[in-house]
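re: ur msg from earlier - yeah i can do the uridine-5'-diphosphate complex, just paste it... oh wait u already did. ok heres what im feeding in:
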Amino acid sequence: MHILFLSTSVGPLGSGIGGGVELTLRNLANGLAALGHSVTVVAPTGSVVGVRKSVASMVGLVEVDGELHVPSQTLDRSTPLTVPRNSVLNNMWQRVVELSRAGDVDVVLNFSYDALPFVQASECAIPVAHLVSMGSLSDEMDSAVDAAFANQPHGVAMHSHAQARTFGSGIAQRVTIVGSGIDVDAYRFSPTSGDDIAFVGRISREKGINDVFAVSALSGRRVRAFGVMEDRAVWDAAVTAFPDARVEYRGFLPTSDLQRELGTCAALIMVHQWVEAFGNVAIEAMACGVPVITYDRGGPAEIVRDGMTGFVVPPDDVHAVVNALSRIGSIRRDRCRAMVLEQYSERAFAGRVAAWLGSMERP
Ligand code: UDP
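and the outut:
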């Protein structure tokens, strides 16, 4: 197949603004190309897909200018999705429609969490498949997903059952679930660790920065925080609220550096306030041998095997996280790595997505 990727419109690939969708897109480009498919990525100007050298000839990039979109998770549910003047999404979509009519592309894979590709898919001459990257956040987006699903139920996929449930039982019962996957070789297994705890994710309210500080203050453990500084006010408020916490902001690191840092940590904590669609960082940590302590909320709770690869604790219960930290030594780090190799390798993920895309019919 020749697959056309429509990237996220909130930031260039490689910037970190797009969160997990950037890694997902890169892993699928690598994985689908390794399976023999060619990929063309349509993405905002400045993007770096970052595929491996061995598949670079199979993956093209079309950069498109325009104004970036505001991420949906920063808006209220009822606020209409804003479309900037000279929208990069409109411009990318025009290129996708043109390329879909050029004749040598088989399917569009949409990564953008925005209404346009869902409601205007019929403009393309080939099937449009949507990989929804987040749970339900916006009334307008829900309607767009509903419309695409009603039109072509097989054309919508999600990462986890918990994510699918946020869109209602009709979708949850029938939508395709593809999970996620990483290039496990890019993460070195670290059999031992120091005492520090890791937090990885955009610094934002929904990722639970407040609870990261609370856990540090209560446990006395140092937390290293990695990710894009999306909301400085949330960080500053947590610093003020928890003077005893030891949380060090380490910036947004490329995967090669992030995995090195992660490997030296005793655990990754996931204390998110929203229904995390999947939580790529959970499998990245486990690939390094790092157990995960997560709230029982969203995708991470489907990934972590309680007592085997980490601990699943009641949502919003920071004391339960602290208690789990005290028991983290009972988790075998090699089991964490083995679980990722078994279920969340790039190859397994790309295989699931290729099977889904290959079964889509031309409109
Ligand atoms: N990430 C990174 N460097 C950092 C911190 C985070 O590359 O310093 C990446 C991380 O590898 C993951 C993504 O940012 O792929 C966050 O994805 P996740 O699915 O956990 O959350 P999202 O931001 O999509 O809600």
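cool cool. The CA atoms of residues 158 and 177 lie 5 Å apart. ping me if u need the other ligands too
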